[in-house]
Structures are given as structure tokens and as C-alpha cells.
Please model this.
Amino acid sequence: MLVIRPIRNKDLDALYGMAEEAGVGVTSLPANRDLLARRIAQAEDAIEQRVAPEHARYFFAMEDLDTGRCAGVCGIDARVGLDDVWYNYRVSTMVNASSELGIHVQTPTLFLTNDMTNCSELCSLYLAEPYRQGGNGLFLSRCRSLFLADFQEFFSDKIFAEMRGYSDEEGRSPFWEALGRRFFSMEFQDADYLTGLGNKSFIAELMPKYPIYLPLLPKAAREVIGKVHDNTRPALHMLEEEGFNFNGLVDIFDGGPVLEAFVRNIRAVRESFNRHALVSRQEVETPLTADNTVLVSNGSFRDFRVIRLPASCVRADTISIPAKAAQALQISSGDVVRIVALKDKHVANVPKRRFS
Model:
């Protein structure tokens, strides 16, 4: 059985292994053991409410209860840009016209912006290779929506995700080669690593503040603006299915797109609902599939837990939860849990689009 829970220091070895496996481009998971240890410590401070809500960085782990292994991670930053300046490029258009000459020119450009400042960010999504099957990626990504649904007061109305931009098999980014390298004598891998260490604002402050005229960039760089890395396509589709859309912003280093949504419009937030738990001694025999699965969270802040169950467990006023699953959720009969379908499917006994 897999369960989502707050990350702990005991997960450091597994987290470091996933960071090494992730390679270049997953900025929020640099292969630096000390930094990852600090990231876990920050997450523990956040979940224990030892920091101000706006500075909280929540970090969750997927644990395989059968092996004790940390199988994946995901995170939410409550606010960005409050300590260091948060930069993106906005893909825009500059118009020049002369009625006398009969000329009207529209030129695509990139403008350096701070538009996402004070917004919440979905981040640090990574699933270990052996677990990339059976809807585990959906489970890991969408568990965060249940946390958002129960604790909306700690987050902004708008939330976004920066997607990993395109790079080739050797880790080269055409966007970086055409733009970033002009201002920094370093490889993309080095710039990406420094970003993961928290040096993004320092590097960004040395980037040109004036509009970048896209026709001046090589074709290879223009073609990857707003494109994602091949390994990131599943994450992109998961967010789009939940109501996230490209907002016209891209990463300043690799040109990856920024997707955003209002929290209240996220499918798994909007369609989630509450039920009283009824702990059962009977085990569930129905196999889990992406189409028949619901996510169930315990509604706890400090001891947040999410598991998966067949949708057939949901009743009009209750949800039947096997004892082993209840133990994983740390709940008892009568406790209120939050439920949502893993995919955009109707759950029996539940009015669609109900959020309580």
C-alpha cells in the first residue's frame, strides 16, 4: 500500500537518490545532500507551523508501506518572491506601425516580469522509476489538491507550476545556449544547479531587463519556448486535466512554460467532498484502476495522510475503509475524511461538482 505523508529526515537518502536520478532540469531537486536536508528541515518547520504561513514550504513523500521506501515526492510553496525576487519571461508582442508607409509590424518578444510574486507554487514532483505505473503519478500529483482544499487559508487564490523546459539527450538547452550563455560563461547544467541551490535571483538580476526580440534568436531556441522536456509531458497533461493553463510566462533559463489556475477551479479541489469514515474489518478485493479510484485524505494538517481506495467504498453518508487503510490514514470510525475521484469521473452516491 502507498500512502502520502509529510516528508521526514529519514527520507533523506531516498530523496538524494531521486535527485541524482532526476538529472538536469529538475531545479527543485538538486543533487546536493546538504541542501536537500535543509529542504526537509524547512518542510518539517512548515508542517509543525514553526514559520509564518506565507513562508511555509510543504513537502510530501509517497511511502511504500510494504517496503518502507520513499517512492516519490511533491511539494507546495505557500508564496514565492517574498524573500528573493521571482523572475519569469512573459511571451508578448510589440507592435510598430506607420500609416504613412502602410507598415504594421508585430514582433514577438520576451519581457522580464515578476508577475507570480506572492502566488503559491506546486513544485518538486518526482516519482522514482520503479513506481511509474498504475496511476501512481496521478496519485502523487493530485494529493496536493486535497491539502489545498482543506487549508485554503494558507495559500493564495492563484497557484502555478513551472514546467521543466526542453533539453536534448545530452542535457543542452537551446534556449539557454541562445540567450543565457550570452551573459554567463557556464553550461546549462551549471546554471540549473546554481538555481537549485537558491541562486536564481542573483543570476536573473544579471539578465537583460529590456525586451528580447525573438526573431533575433536562432530558430532552435524560438521553437522550444513554452515547450516541455519529454519526461515532463505526463506532468503537463495531469495539470491540464485538472484545469491548469499556460499563462504566457516561461522560465528564464530553459523557456519551460508556467501553468496556473485559481485554486477554487482546480478539478480535484472543486469536486472533493467530505464523508464520515466507517472502519471495516473486511478487506477490499476490487483492483484499483485509474478510472475506479478515489483519493482519501484524513483532513489533518500536521499528520496529513492520503491513500487510494475503490470508488465502490463510497456511500451516501459514509465511506467504508478497511482497517489497514484506516491505520495508514491514522483515523477511526466517525472521523471526517475528504474524498475525490482520481480522474474526472462521477463517483456513485455523490453529486458532481460538490465542494464542502
In short: The CA atoms of residues 293 and 311 lie 5 Å apart.
